[in-house]
Input
Amino acid sequence: MTEQERLYRFNHPLTPGDAAPHRAAAALRFEEAWMARCIAGIEQEQGDVRAGTLEGFRAALDRRLSEARATPSEGARFVAEDASREQFRAIVREYALDGLTEAQAMFAVMPRLDPESLPPVMRILIDEFGCGNPARVHSTLYRNLLAELELPTALEGYLQEDRVEAAFSLVNLYHWLTKRAPTVDAYLGALAYTEGAIPWSFRCFVAACERLGIQNHAYFSEHVHIDAYHARDALLALSRRHRAHGVDFHAAWLGAELARCVGDEAFERIVRRAMGAKDVFRIEARGKRYCVVKACPHRGGDLSKGVVRRDGKAITCPLHGATFALPSGRRLGGPECSDLEVTEDGAGPEDRRPA
Ligand code: FES
Ligand SMILES: [Fe+2]
Ligand SMILES: [Fe+2]
Output
């Protein structure tokens, strides 16, 4: 078990052993060292990370969010445009550590907030739990998505497999921020960044669901919509708290940067692993582009070296000659095997990239 998994189990104890005192002490020691490393990295990279004032914090936040929008990552493009159903499934599987425990860390922050900043944060929490409607609880929306993709819907299922380390750290960060960060200002800063980033950063997941015909996209589409309001609530909490008590904006900015760095790293690592889940290549046939799984379903022959029929309606494996229809992927002939996974690539000709 990795240190991040140990810490995750401490934050979400599934067995009495996860919260045992010796394990808890080891998990917290690891967390302290991990957070110190992350903060040192941010301070080193940015020199002076002090946003100083509310206006300074807002300006720095706006800059960060517009930078992210202006330079979408290759991972986001891949998810939106290229990921096969299997690859998307691999991404959803990794994020289950977060999706199935959505917003639980927020409970711990409530008693730490002052009466001025608590109501807007409470409003976010109420939304996270479906405004009283069990069907709209965010973790339920995630469970529905998992069920459609034929993945386990209980958290235990995800702790028995090999997981991307950064997927644990994404959740662990919020437990530190809400429970153990020296000031709750760090949490509010992280909340402002996360809620501000999601309406844009989740769009690639919405696009993937649309492209792949996934019905249970509400987990993503709901966040794209509602987090625009949550971003406003998070900033309102910060400004109210500042008026009433003063906010340590150095801590708030560190929180925002922690959320960005840990969140981005988790996304990139999860997507990178999913890319390897099934290697795909692109072909052009009859003016359209398709993403085709490289490994032939017969014995893994490399279909990227296969022959595409002149009319673009079939591809033949170079190894034993299995032939598949394009774009359906249906096996037309050759050795017995399942159909080929082919997805249409929606990008136009001006956006062609090498396969
Ligand atoms: S591996 Fe492709 S036909 Fe056998
Ligand atoms: Fe949520
Ligand atoms: Fe939110």
